[in-house]
Amino acid sequence: MTQDDSRQHAPATQRNREPILAVLRDVLPAQGLVLEVASGSGEHAVYFAGAFPNLIFQPSDPDQAALASIDAWAGESALPNLRSAIRLDATAPRWPITEADAILCINMVHISPWAATEGLIRQAAQLLPVGGPLYLYGPYRQHDVPLAASNAVFDDSLRRRNPKWGLRELEAVAELASAAGFGEPEVTAMPANNLSVVFRKA
After folding, report:
1. Based on the structure, what is the number of domains in the chain?
2. Fewer CB atoms inside 10 Å of the end CB: C or N, the chain?
3. Which InterPro entries match (predicted)?
């Protein structure tokens, strides 16, 4: 048993947090509020809040168990720039937050219905200032890049779990973002056939 058994552990966070951090150092503003959508266990929120003490981090998730985990991790870290988690469903027509200087969304787009990505981009366009970044991380399909075998297997497993899940075409996400007022994506190849994708509010 851990000290607080409401804390969840996502092994992938240990593997990807350093590569993500390296990208975020060139993406996040010097100060302001960073909203993390679909924070999951909360381990990323704690790690990034510790790495960027001049930024305020607002974690969120639609799942009650995840919210408890986030707050348990946050409580243990005692970071002054990490807020309590808020319940946020990306598909909701209204979000419980009115503005953000940057938005992070790690490993949600492929493990949620397409409506969640639509909601994420629609709300990000309303919350972010001009130039504000929307950072996405995860595996994607790309028209001009063969799908890695491991990603094909992962995609199949996701669709078996829920037909509304699965790897999205990066071009489709970019088209959605463009229609909402974002510029072209800044794409960085990441370990394990993932991508960092940054859209900036035009």
Report:
1. 1
2. N
3. DUF938 (IPR010342), SAM-dependent_MTases_sf (IPR029063)
